[in-house]
């Protein structure tokens, strides 16, 4: 029986090891295929999304967008309720390029509110992001680069219908990525940053009101640092005269803590322009972070309720279809 148990344990260990190696190889292969496929499209895109940079000069740009969704019901016997939501998006960028250097900076803030039926006004979107990337030219399209990316929110967030205890706040959590690597920029619409040396820091500054264990930290921690590999790609393309697509994906793997578990942050936007100021947009946002536990819910008597204290690992996904009014400056 002892011999059989040892063989069983060894077999399980071998299977786990093989599974881990397969996940790592699959991740590397996925990155290569992503880079090759996106780059092939990017190089074939002859329609610039942004104006060309003039060497030795700063280029500043900004865009504000108000997206609206609305539905109204009155005496509707089949049921339902009226709703309205609005999301404000502000994008700012400042870029500089010389013969040997490239410096890209951008900031973005998204804030949205929702009112459904007789419920009070609720926040359903709040994201602030700042990124700065500086590089020295290595060859025609490659740069030795350093990057800093900061993500958080500006206002308190709640797990409705409980609006008395916040689950998030400014820098609670906050995610900071600092990385060194190579940046591939074949044209102004595509960039691929490969960083074998990166530090991802998760911050929960307000541990009095915010439960930091919700975001992968221990009960006595405010900061959590992880050393790992980081890959980020951005691709913008005019698919048609009035159709613009934006893609941004970030991948992070911790070297010391289950490197086979890849953190994913992928944003996609498809914008159909009706006029200079009016457009319809479809946006999606997918997040997976193995350090974050997701509550498990069940349905009782037609109502969605927590299944005790059960938690799981799951993909976070958000999708929005809206009409927007935008202005560039």
Write down the domain tally: 1
Strand order, biggest sheet?
Answer: 1-2-3-4-5-8-9-10-11-12-13-16
Q: What's the story with the biggest beta sheet?
A: 12 strands, antiparallel, barrel
Q: What percentage of amino acids are in beta strands?
A: over 45%
Radius of gyration, CA atoms, in whole angstroms: 23 Å
Helix/sheet category: mainly beta
Overall mean confidence score, pLDDT? 85
Number of helices: 1
Number of strands: 16
* Low-confidence runs: 1-27, 40-50
Order of helices and strands: HEEEEEEEEEEEEEEEE
Helix share, percent: 10-25%
Topology:
Elements: H1 2-44, E1 58-71, E2 83-97, E3 101-116, E4 122-137, E5 142-152, E6 157-158, E7 166-168, E8 174-187, E9 190-203, E10 223-240, E11 243-254, E12 263-273, E13 278-288, E14 294-300, E15 303-312, E16 316-328
Antiparallel strand pairs: 1-2, 1-16, 2-3, 3-4, 4-5, 5-8, 6-7, 8-9, 9-10, 10-11, 11-12, 12-13, 13-16, 14-15
Structure write-up:
- The protein has 329 residues and is mostly beta strands.
- It has one domain (2-328).
- 13% of the residues lie in helices and 57% in strands.
- It has one helix spanning 2-44, and strands at residues 58-71, 83-97, 101-116, 122-137, 142-152, 157-158, 166-168, 174-187, 190-203, 223-240, 243-254, 263-273, 278-288, 294-300, 303-312, 316-328.
- The strands form three sheets. Strands 1-2-3-4-5-8-9-10-11-12-13-16 form a twelve-stranded antiparallel barrel.
- 19% of the residues are buried.
């Amino acid at each position: 029986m002892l011999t059989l148990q040892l063989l069983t344990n060894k077999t399980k260990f071998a299977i786990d090891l093989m599974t881990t190696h397969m996940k790592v190889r699959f991740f590397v292969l996925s990155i290569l295929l992503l880079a090759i496929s996106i780059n092939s499209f990017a190089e074939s895109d002859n329609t610039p999304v942004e104006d060309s940079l003039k060497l030795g000069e700063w280029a500043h740009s900004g865009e504000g967008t108000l997206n609206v969704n609305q539905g109204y019901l009155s005496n509707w016997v089949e049921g339902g309720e009226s709703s309205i939501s609005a999301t404000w998006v502000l994008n700012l960028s400042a870029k500089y390029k010389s013969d040997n250097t490239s410096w890209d900076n951008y900031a973005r803030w998204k804030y949205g509110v929702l009112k459904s039926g007789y419920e009070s006004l609720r926040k359903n979107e709040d994201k602030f992001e700042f990124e700065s990337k500086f590089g020295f030219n290595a060859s025609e399209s490659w740069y030795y680069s350093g990057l800093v990316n900061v993500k958080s929110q500006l206002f308190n967030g709640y797990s409705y219908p409980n609006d008395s205890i916040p689950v998030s706040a400014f820098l609670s959590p906050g995610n900071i990525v600092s990385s060194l690597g190579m940046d591939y920029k074949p044209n102004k619409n595509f960039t691929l940053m490969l960083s074998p040396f990166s530090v991802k820091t998760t911050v929960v500054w307000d541990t009095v009101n915010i439960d930091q264990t919700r975001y992968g930290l221990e009960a006595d921690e405010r900061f959590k640092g992880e050393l790992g590999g980081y890959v980020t790609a951005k691709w913008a393309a005019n698919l048609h005269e009035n159709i613009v697509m934006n893609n941004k994906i970030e991948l992070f793997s911790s070297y010391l803590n289950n490197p086979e578990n890849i953190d994913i942050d992928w944003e996609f936007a498809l914008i159909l322009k009706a006029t200079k100021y009016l457009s319809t947009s479809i946006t999606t946002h997918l997040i997976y972070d193995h350090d974050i536990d997701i509550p498990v819910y069940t349905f009782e008597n037609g109502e969605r309720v927590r299944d005790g204290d059960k938690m799981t690992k799951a993909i976070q996904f958000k999708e929005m279809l809206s009409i927007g009014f935008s202005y560039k400056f």
